[in-house]
């Protein structure tokens, strides 16, 4: 019974709570038991807050459950998010004593909604890296095959949801760090429009590209969660002051007439054949629903990853300059090497890269004159084995982290809302996922189109067999 509860989506759990089949306290106990049982393998959590969660659950009354979609629902947050009174490690020894004095914006919104935090999840140190490998806290693994990577940098958030340790989690996405691990673990991963969810109280990696992201089991849960954490915070320079849409209401709308852009270049290149075949099935289904497929051409993408890194590393170096002087020996070799790279990037290079980012935004935004959405594969590869260094495809070797995020990184530079979701299973027993990208602040169209795809059984996938 407890294992079955653990893999329910948030709306199903809420129905059980409101029907009196289970209490918030019993729900917390169910997930606490699973964390104890599975965290040794999954490496999902760095810090758990079970005692505090039990105290909070005991205060949630039957009447409180109607206050919000997440009242009485447990969740977890990537260990970059401050939770008052709890250690924020950022996956590093450097922050071994950093106890948060206040909640991050998104955490505070969830607390107000009476959602219950179960703890802080694992990540690639300081969010630097797409594999999720962490030499201090261990490497989070894939729920469908524990010999495979969960992906990163929000590796622990993906593992926590996929292993049935929580029904939803917060992450951050600077180059695909929510969308890619969600895709590799058969989950929904959303990077909203830049500025839609404030980053206040989140340890920064790259101010220009950082986004707060969401991981859930279903599109409806994602819409409900976005409705809670979206908003405006004047203390966050990237936050945008505009009304929050009713994302849940949008899910009931049909998608007939929606114009879906299909990239002619880059986004279907050098990908696993089974992933491409799965995307063809998605295209056919969208047409059957009345959507229109429209070819689109992206700007020259040859140097886009270089542009991203040229922005990332100087900003990361700036964020860590004080800590490097005081605690430089505590940094892992991986991130230290990245910071050293940041020292080699000239101001001239950084300024040019920022200008490229602005051009990318303008050129990509222009595509939405002719389409409402853009459809791509989420990743060109399925989850790779832990320890994999390079992936070879069509005679070309690519660093595994680059492969994992090849189709996601660009939209951190443009800032458009982007969602990944499962659309099939590979013959190797691992999830395949698609990516939908929308206009600025048009998460509603992204979510309702994703919901239409999710409703079709042809794209459903089995849950991982983690309790064998």
UniProtKB/TrEMBL annotation:
InterPro entries: Amidase, Amidase_CS, Amidase_dom, AS_sf. Keywords: Plasmid, Transferase. The keyword Aminoacyl-tRNA synthetase does not apply. Belongs to the amidase family. This is Indoleacetamide hydrolase. The keyword Metal-binding does not apply. Residues 26-447 form the Amidase domain. One of its GO terms (molecular function) is transferase activity. It comes from Rhizobium jaguaris. Hydrolyzes indole-3-acetamide (IAM) into indole-3-acetic acid (IAA).
